[in-house]
Queue: 2 jobs
Job 1
Amino acid sequence: MLDATQELIEAGGYLGAGLNQVIAASGAPRGSLYFHFPGGKDQLVGESVRRAGRAIGSDLEGLADSSTSVAEFVEAVLRHLGRRLEGSGWHKGCPVATVALETASINTSLQEACSEVYASWEEALRARLAGHPDADDLAVTILALVEGALLLARTHRSLEPLDRVARRIGALVD
């Protein structure tokens, strides 16, 4: 159910992940949905967002370990996210952004789930920037640039925004 929910929210956001769609996509019986997620759709989507956030966070850790510089790390992250986006037919941008945009002002539990994920990614970036005099500000800036680049890449169906942002971030961190 979590896999199906993640696929649906990445492609169509919170509003695009109806419970009937989740049940159909997952093949799970309706009763198991409320057994495992008594909080209903909000609990299911919140857990899916957190789970997707952990997966991307794990990817960030792996890329950080294999990068020799901050610029190389960010470029690797953008390349990874770009391959993920393009490989999905431009459906898999950020697993958090659409839900955050749709629900942050009206749904506290989902706002908190999205906030937790963004905070964890920011922390991963901050850790990679350790020792840089502006690590806190740069971590937020990089995250915002990556999120914006993903939105533009998905909208334009082009990896060019990701490439451009990678170059600018490289200049920022050097």
Note: The CA atoms of residues 105 and 111 lie 7 Å apart.
Job 2
Amino acid sequence: MPRTMSVAESIVIDASPALVYTQLSDPTAMGRWSPENRGATVQGERRDAYVGMVFEGRNKRGAARWTTRCTVTAADPGQRFAFRVHAIGLRRPLLPGPIATWEYSIEAVDGATRVTETWTDDRRWPDFLANAFDRVATGGKTFAQFQVGNIRTTLKRLKAELEAEARGTGD
């Protein structure tokens, strides 16, 4: 069976597109919302997102830990942030290759912001191999099925944090 190569979910957040973009385009902040990401280290001095920015993400799933190297492919303030994951390793991302692309589309809607998070599988593996690997790595699911859950969790946590900040509760 051919695998699903891309999944997306959306949520509406009671915050401005500018604020949502500022938060999502900071790779060091993703660990606050993602169930797997534990933060990132941006290479170079510049901290605002730009196309070509490189960062290394630290990740954890159960007992497994790994690091990825990512390059920003879109940085359109208030509209879109995307990055490509193109190397992986345990402590250092030493194994290069296409892995995944993550994208956040940001759109103003009725005084709030709709955020759509999209995961695309960039692995060019045969489907049977990818499906077998995925089920071992995720405890029985394909990566597409698994990432839908991760995306939903990330978006719900992002919404809760930004709306709490907007209310001034900081929860």
Note: The mean pLDDT is 94.
